[in-house]
Each structure stands twice: as structure tokens, then as C-alpha cells.
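Incident log, support desk, overnight shift.

02:14 A customer reports that sequence design results differ from what the structure should imply. Their input is reproduced verbatim below. On-call engineer (initials T.W.) acknowledged and began investigating.
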């Protein structure tokens, strides 16, 4: 607001007026008195019969909405503990950061609409549940496990989550963490309204549940599944403490997201509900997901987007073979200024047909190999005279 500008507002049927004012500082700057800044303030006027409403409800409302606007407008950050990122920071912290500017949104994600809605609803409900969490005595946090083959959109979804909720992202590189103590320190430095991400959790730690028992020469931490190879000594139990302890140690809303290509490799303790509350499978591209991508990449309008003549072929091929959203996206990407929707769709169809042929060929080769192996077994059985494996020699 400019000086002396008047702004009217309405709250619960009551009209109030705000005026921006300032008071110049009366003290003259001198040798021992540096110039003081003027004092700025807002004058709020309303009828005195509304005093109760204004002090009890309106002012808290203004503060809350102000905070929301500030959060919405703030520049979000991507923090990382990776030793490769070394930007100078104002004060030394364990995280370095850059501005988070990933453009992914749920609208642009190729995902089945029902699944998309379910995830968005879950996230929005979480952010609006501060009182609920406090009432049931749980820390205000939620864990998501994103799993599926490479190129199905796990990282993209994390960016879409951050953009939807206006959260910062802490990309935790577990292999760069020295030990459990350092893990805890990193955790304590994270702020509210953030997503803590551990990508490819199966590669970061020995989390298979196959603890290295009977190896007496190993330290407790190494036996417990500490990261091997490097200098990190983060263990599975350290990570479990991280997830559980974090929430009790830090207030404010936080999400923790793990991604993996091999969900079956993970220790069940790590992904049980309560730690990873929502498990989301990201899989090969469905026809519904393809339509979202086609609409975005080819700039088809709503009507054309569901109706392009080549879509029927894509739909048929999608039933006969598997293709990741990443491969669909790559094929739909124009490769020259002359590429139009038909060119991009033809390229995608060709790629799908080639991939289907290659998969069929692979299946045939595998079947032939199996046949040869069975024949070899039979011959060996005949030579050894085993009646189970083949015909016994006369
Ligand atoms: N569901 C999707 N919707 C839109 N784009 C996608 C989707 N999945 C993948 N992509 C595109 O493919 C690229 C790779 O996707 P992404 O990195 O999110 O996959 P990922 O599942 O995290 O892979 P990885 O397991 O290898 O880390 C992205 O840059 C994005 O453009």
C-alpha cells in the first residue's frame, strides 16, 4: 500500500478501513545517534460495536491469510546434501540449495485420471489436517513410497507434489551421509512445509532385510546394513529412527518420499504403514495417460485430444506391449520445427511396433532356448540312465 492509501475490506458483513501511515523519527542524527528509520504502520478503523469480532476473529484471519500469501509467493528451494553441490551459503549449514524451478505439475503428468485425483486428494487433505493430527496425537507428517520401473515418472511426481503444495524439497543423498548422527543433524535442519526425498532407496542402503549376521569382524553398524563401499555408516535402524524420530523432533508439516525400482527388495519394516503411509505404483503408460501426454505435447485441443485418427492404433498397441511414459514423451517431442502432430504420432507408433517385434523375438528366442535346455536335460538323463529325466537305456 502507498502512504495514506485507503483500502476497504469486508469481514462477516462488517466494513473496515485500512490506511498506511508513517511517523518520521523525531531524533536528529548526530555523532552518537545514527539516523533511525521512520516508523511505518497501518491504521485500522471500524465501528466500535464490532471490536470483539475484529480482535477475536478478523485480525487472526488477516495474519493467517497474510502468511498463506507469503508462503505462496516465496521462492521455493531445492536442498541437497550431495558433496557435488557446493554453493556458497549465507551461514554454514549441512544443506546447499538452489531455487526450485521444476515445471512439472499433476496436470501435465501422464497418469490415469482416477489415480491422479486420489493422490491430489490425499496431499490436499494432509495439508489441511493440522488440527486433526494434533487431536489424534500424531506428528503432522506423511510418508509416500513411489515404486515402479525406470521412466514411469517417480521424480516427476515429486516435483508435481512440491509445486502443488508449495513445499521446498530436500533431496537426501544417503550415500553421502557419514553416519546416523549426521543423518539426524541433517534432519533437524529441515524446515516445515517440505518434502524430504530419498531416491532409489534400494541402492542407498542394504535394505533387503538380509542383515549381515555371523560376520564378527564387522562393526555393529556394518552388520546392521550400513552403506558399504564408501565412508557412510548409515544403517537401516538409523534410517528407521530418522523417519520415526524426525516427526517427534520437528514440528510442522513434512512429507517424506522414497522412490525405488524394486519394491520387493525393501525391508518390510521400512515401508510399513505409519512410516510409508501411501504406496503409489507408477507403471507403464496406459491409454488414458497417453492422452494427457498427447494433449500437452502435441497441443491438441480438448476435442481433438480424444479423437485423433491415429489414437486407435496407439490404443491397440498399448494393449499388446509395454511402453514407459518417458518413452512416449520422448517420441511425442517434436524433433524439428516442421514436426506436426501426425509426424510425432507416426514416430511413436513406429517405435511401439518395433518394440513389440523386438519383444516377440525375445520371447521366441527364450522359448527356443528353453526347448534346447529341456532336450539337453533329456539327453543327460538318458546317458545317466535316470528314468525321471529321460528314457532309460535298454
Ligand atoms: N507419468 C509421466 N508423465 C509425464 N512425463 C513423464 C512421466 N513419466 C516420465 N515422464 C518423462 O520422462 C522423464 C523421466 O521421468 P522420471 O525421471 O520422472 O522417471 P523415474 O520413474 O523417476 O525414473 P528413474 O526410476 O529412472 O529415476 C521425465 O523427464 C518426464 O519428462
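02:41 Re-run completed on a clean worker. Output:
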Amino acid at each position: 500500500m502507498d502512504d495514506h492509501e485507503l483500502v476497504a475490506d469486508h469481514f462477516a458483513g462488517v466494513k473496515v478501513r485500512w490506511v498506511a501511515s508513517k511517523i518520521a523519527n523525531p531524533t536528529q542524527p548526530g555523532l552518537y545517534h545514527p539516523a533511525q528509520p521512520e516508523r511505518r504502520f497501518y491504521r485500522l478503523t471500524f465501528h466500535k460495536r464490532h471490536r470483539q469480532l475484529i480482535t477475536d476473529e478478523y485480525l487472526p484471519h488477516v495474519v493467517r491469510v497474510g502468511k498463506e500469501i507469503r508462503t505462496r509467493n516465496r521462492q521455493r528451494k531445492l536442498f541437497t546434501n550431495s558433496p557435488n553441490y557446493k554453493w556458497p551459503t549465507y551461514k554454514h549449514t549441512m544443506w546447499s540449495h538452489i531455487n526450485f524451478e521444476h515445471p512439472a505439475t499433476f496436470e501435465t503428468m501422464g497418469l490415469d485420471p482416477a489415480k491422479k485425483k486420489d493422490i491430489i486428494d490425499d496431499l490436499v487433505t494432509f495439508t489441511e489436517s493440522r488440527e486433526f493430527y494434533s487431536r489424534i496425537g500424531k506428528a503432522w507428517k506423511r510418508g509416500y513410497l513411489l515404486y515402479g520401473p525406470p521412466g514411469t515418472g517417480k521424480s516427476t511426481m515429486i516435483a508435481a507434489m512440491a509445486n502443488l503444495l508449495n513445499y521446498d524439497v530436500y533431496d537426501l543423498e544417503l550415500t553421502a551421509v557419514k553416519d546416523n548422527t549426521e543423518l539426524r543433524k541433517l534432519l533437524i535442519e529441515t524446515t516445515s512445509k517440505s518434502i524430504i526425498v530419498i531416491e532409489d532407496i534400494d541402492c542407498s542402503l542394504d535394505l533387503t532385510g538380509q542383515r549381515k549376521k555371523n560376520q564378527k569382524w564387522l562393526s555393529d553398524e556394518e552388520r546392521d546394513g550400513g552403506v558399504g563401499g564408501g565412508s557412510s555408516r548409515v544403517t537401516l535402524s538409523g534410517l528407521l529412527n530418522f523417519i520415526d524420530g524426525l516427526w517427534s523432533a520437528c514440528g510442522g508439516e513434512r512429507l517424506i518420499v522414497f522412490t525405488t525400482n524394486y519394491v520387493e527388495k525393501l525391508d518390510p519394516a521400512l515401508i510399513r504403514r505409519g512410516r510409508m503411509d501411501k504406496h503409489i505404483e507408477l507403471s507403464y503408460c496406459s491409454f488414458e495417460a497417453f492422452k494427457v501426454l498427447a494433449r500437452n505435447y502435441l497441443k491438441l485441443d480438448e476435442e481433438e485430444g480424444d479423437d485423433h485418427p491415429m489414437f486407435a492404433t496407439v490404443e491397440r498397441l498399448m494393449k499388446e506391449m509395454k511402453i514407459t511414459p518417458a518413452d512416449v514423451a520422448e517420441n511425442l517431442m517434436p524433433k524439428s520445427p516442421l514436426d506436426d502432430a501426425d509426424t510425432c504420432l507416426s514416430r511413436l507408433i513406429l517405435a511401439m511396433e518395433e518394440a513389440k517385434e523386438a519383444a516377440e523375438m525375445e520371447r521366441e528366442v527364450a522359448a527356443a532356448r528353453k526347448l534346447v535346455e529341456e532336450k539337453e536335460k533329456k539327453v543327460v538323463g538318458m546317458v545317466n540312465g535316470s528314468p525321471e529325466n529321460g528314457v532309460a537305456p535298454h
